[in-house]
Amino acid sequence: MPVYSHSKPNKDGEREGSKLLIDHLKGVRDKALANYSEHTSFSNRTNHKSLLENICWLHDLGKYTSYFQSYLLDSGKVEQRLKNHSSLGAHAAFNLLRKDPKDALFAYYLIKLHHSNLLNFDEVFWPEHYNSHKWLIQGTFKKQVENLQNTEELKIYISDFDKSVVKHTEPKTFFKLYKSEFQNVDSIEFYFIINYLFSLLIESDKLDASDTIPYQLTSLPANAVDDRPGIGKPNYPNSDLSTFSQNELRNFVRSEVVKNIERDDILQKRIFTLAAPTGIGKTLTALDFSLKLRQKIESKEGYLSQIIYGLPFINIIEQALSEYEKTLGEGKTLGHYQFADVFGKDKGEENSLDDTESDYSKKKMAWDTWQSDVVITSFVQLFETMIGNRNRLLKKFHHFADSIIILDEVQTLAIEKLPIIGAVLYSLSKYLNARIIIMTATQPKLFELMERELDVKIEEPDFKPFNLLERDGEVFSCFNRTKIIPLLNEQIDNERFIDLFESKWSFDKSCLIVVNKVNRSIEIFDLLKNHLCESDVELFYLSTNITPVERQRRVEEIKRSLPSKTCILVSTQVVEAGVDLDFDMGFRDLGPIDSIVQVAGRINRENSEARMGSPIYVIDFGDCQQIYGYATTTKSVAALNKTEIPENEYKNVVENYFASVSDAKLSDFEFSRGIFQAMKNLRYGYPKSSSEKEITVSDFKIIENSQNGNSVFIELPEDQKGIEARTAFQALINNEISRHEFDRKYKRAFHQRIIAVPDYLPNIKEVSSLTEDILWVEPDVAEFYYDEYTGFMRKEGEEKAIMF
Prior knowledge:
Blueprint: E1 4-9, E2 15-20, H1 21-35, H2 45-58, H3 66-73, H4 80-83, H5 86-96, H6 101-112, H7 121-125, H8 134-146, H9 171-181, H10 189-209, H11 224-227, H12 246-258, E3 271-275, H13 282-301, E4 307-311, H14 314-328, E5 333-336, H15 349-352, H16 357-368, E6 374-378, H17 379-386, H18 391-394, E7 404-408, H19 418-431, E8 435-440, H20 446-454, E9 466-467, H21 472-477, E10 482-486, H22 494-504, E11 511-514, H23 518-531, E12 538-542, H24 548-561, E13 567-571, E14 585-589, H25 593-600, E15 614-619, H26 624-628, H27 630-639, E16 645-646, H28 650-661, H29 670-680, E17 709-714, H30 720-733, H31 739-745, H32 747-751, E18 754-758, E19 768-769, E20 774-777, H33 782-785, E21 786-787, E22 791-792
Parallel strand pairs: 3-8, 3-9, 4-6, 4-7, 5-6, 7-8, 10-15, 11-13, 11-14, 12-13, 14-15, 17-20
Antiparallel strand pairs: 1-2, 10-16, 17-18, 19-20, 21-22
Helix pairs in contact: 1-2, 1-10, 2-6, 2-10, 5-6, 12-13, 19-20, 19-29, 22-23, 27-28
């Protein structure tokens, strides 16, 4: 009698086996070994490969029971505990590999949890509930063993296997081995071994189960950036940098970075930094370097590297994706982020509707497992895969092996998380043979903080950060596009700001105004609207208070207007990074120095000779401490203790600022230390029923979710796509359409109309509910809740510090 791993309904609606279990096990084994890197630097690497193979063969051993087969084929009702299949394989693997206690424990742990999130290592061996359910657990195990069928076919692939290894081991045996092998280990290596093997197992399992064909990496043209129309090879005159135009400086930077490829020792380097001013073309420079490095790795070391590009914000992810596609063509770059289209931009909605649910599942699986030569993703996806316990994210973890990882705008990372992020990046390069490129206009102290706070020392010379732009100081000194002018003698209010604005601004100047709070941004916008109502000036507003789809439209509208019209934009921090706009002058509420420099990057961005030294005025509404904290406020004020700061001094000012706010007396790095200790102790996460509160790997988040925020779907009367998306969402909730159909046709449109609204606003209590977690501004009352210019209406109420 055949034994199956999966089933599907036939034309009569009855379930039938769709894949033989032995074929599934073989498929998982083949896929996992095909992705296993021979270049990792774990201890006993050969054993890990053999361990992986055994795990793949035994992970679904429990599916050989008649109970699971009955469940699969609907031939009878089966108790949940009897159809669960991970326990038999976990115990069998432990007994089979008992000669090596570490391997035996790894195998048990990985198979036991292959359908769930990772939990604390010790608790998996001796669960909290075991003693009270001992006889039930042992009885279930015995029944399952008695009902195993056809397992002799495994003997062909595992010579040491027979039914005698499928026996129950008591928790005290596991725990004794755990204490002797792992309890006093002061290394993070085991965390990376577990995550790597777990990732290989669960991704292969999911790909094979869905019949998704794994993507085979291909050679990419090393000169793709050089050959792109309008870009070309970097060419600049042999003269003093101070005489270069901005385009010549872009070419100089790219040439200086790329020439490092010719170094004899370049392949030995693992961590690279690229610090360069905003608007200097770091995106294409990093891509050019990565493509040439990738080709050299392929030529000299014989394997292909996946390029993984991480960015903090969706708007710059989409910009980068566009640039990569223009350079590499369609089909070579995958965008993996909240609003990404599974089908890719080359496929319109009309075509995608015809895809079968099965085809869609495969494409979604390929998308969600980074099946591409180049991946562009968010910091959330990237770092919460590196530091996390979630099954859904960890299936991508093994892609870091042999990869080239580009991190852009790293200054946006919270300073208290920098030590643990530095430690993980160093470990990826050390254990998984990853190459890391860290680029920013304002370089934070990732590795310095790692060494100081976590006592992790980079001893190997080739792992010390290598500066790709040796003359970065000269490049920074060439720029005089802007100057920061602090006006911090006293705090100002909204009305005084309007007076100040009027004294500094003239009608022929476009202007960017960035403040720290949404409420204040709306108040400033309304005052300016009244002040400029009779002029030809175009006034715009941007913040997270308006929907993402409207923010995108508005940025494009500002871009079209800026060259020929006088524009004023009032915004919050949402405009600080990656928004390609170019104003004549600006105002920035007091904040972190790197944020102020980022705003300066939206002023005279194209280095116009006529606008040299364009001013960005720093003012103080008194909101900085409430948003960023006392240390940031005092150190920012100290850094801005000059009458004006020209752009060629920004680099030094930022470096001094980061050095001061990184002081352990001012910043709390306890969180990084706690996560690091959890990783070393394999403390991944507690079961939901646990009352324990000790910090675990699962506590790591790149963005802390506000406890005071509400997700609100905004449905405007004339927005047909929004109406269709909301209707489809309700149909999904009512099981009238499938998740696949919703994701395929409506997901992007739905999420692009959701904003986060704080719950302290009085009118939020009046808004209807779409679900328990999502509120809904209905079209017939939208005018009472949502302003076409400034978004969700904020009636008077106490404003608390909250950032989204």
